[in-house]
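Most newcomers find our protein records easier to grasp once they have seen one. There is nothing in a record beyond a sequence line and a structure line. Getting from the letters to the tokens is the skill we practise here. An example says more than a description, so a record of this kind follows:
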Amino acid sequence: MGAICTFYKVQFKTTEQGIVCKINKLLVNIWLIKLDERNIGYSSTILVLVYKGVRIIKEIRDLLKENKIIIYDGAMGTFLQQLGLKNNECPEIYNLNNKAVVQKVHTAYKNAGSDVVLTNTFGANRIKLKKYKLEDKVHEINTNAVKIAKEVMDGQGYVALSVGPTGEMYQPYGSLNFEEAYDIYAQQICAGAKAGAELIHIETMTDLIELKAAAYAALNNTQLPIVATMTFENNRRTLMGSDASTVANVIDGMGVDAVGVNCSAGPAELMPIAREMAAITDKPIIIQPNAGLPELKNGVVHYPLSPEDMYYFAKQMVKSGAQILGGCCGTGPEHIKNIKDAVINMKAIERKIDKRFISSGYNTLEFDDRLIDKYTVNKVNVSKDLSDNINRVQEVSMSEGDIVELDFQTIDASEMETAIESMNFIQSMIKKPLLFTNIMSKELLEGILKNYKGRAVIRSGSEYETKAFNAIINSFGAYVI
């Protein structure tokens, strides 16, 4: 006999025939699997199903590598409204006092063919819950939500923790900063992961810096797969001005598993955004459209796209580069069933992106080692005075150029707050990518990369050769020249 390990309430042990699994006094043989170069290893994203025949549901990252089309569920909020959720009522409280209704939603999507269901936790962060005086219920709400979804799926699919925006504006437009946002999201994500979520789904973000904070919290507190989506306006930019290429490039750099677009509009409007993302990153693309643009009929909000319409669009979404398909506002189980039926025999398009890119929070440029020769760079020496920095940048903003270089030579770690405040104002004024120079401390480097909305490029220095500096640079996908 070999090693013994515990997975949920399942006991495994190795034998010459493979792995023996014992559940509820039922002894069955299952396949020997290999993960992370170990003969035995289990993560919370692997499910074992024995009572309907011996079967292993693969880790979702493996399914994505195999170009398998993954089907998500549809809307939670509009479905709950159909089942009795009132205006101004907290949807997430249903995880505590109306469990049967949430179960009904998950069950409907499971029966429709969803491989992944999202928990009823879109607004289950302490900022959103404070509106309902439920900010002390973050752990309980997220824990219950995951347990409800897992009971319904019962090992026949994946449960994704839904992580939505806080609703607060970021500095310099509002008071929220990266560290506070990180802490808010870490609290929610840790609760969901501990309860058994199989992946983290960050969705409906409008500001790249908020998405970065949520992704950073997930990356630093779990080893679960991460899917991240943003919403876009009619001009194919987010509310804060990021284009699709920039969103794809920034999130690709952080190391999430899939990136895409949700809500916003119907599939016809979202497919061009997906195509733009697919040209920048080879990460899987997710599309979760609304059932068209909402219309008001007889005082009732109506979404025009029928389930049959979704059948047609599902095939087109895969052809536009999507590997993960689902629905958002106005979509229901019949929409998901039609999506599933449409793509049942399709595979995702294989892509390999050989180019590299840098981004501001708004626009993206192709990157290579000839960056300085290829583009016009305007330099700004960052001082210890905020107003002085703003005046210098205003002068540069009027001149031609592709990139703005910020030189932090006179700034040390003790002045980090001023440096970051200056950078936040600078990146709100200038839409061009920033090149960072002479960042002398790892604390300042980390602070800059956390708060920079784009994917950074840093001018090389001897300090960047250390493991500590490299780890920070790599965690944000930054480049060094």
Summary: The chain has 17 helices and 23 strands. The radius of gyration is 23 Å. Residues 143 and 194 are 8 Å apart (CA to CA).
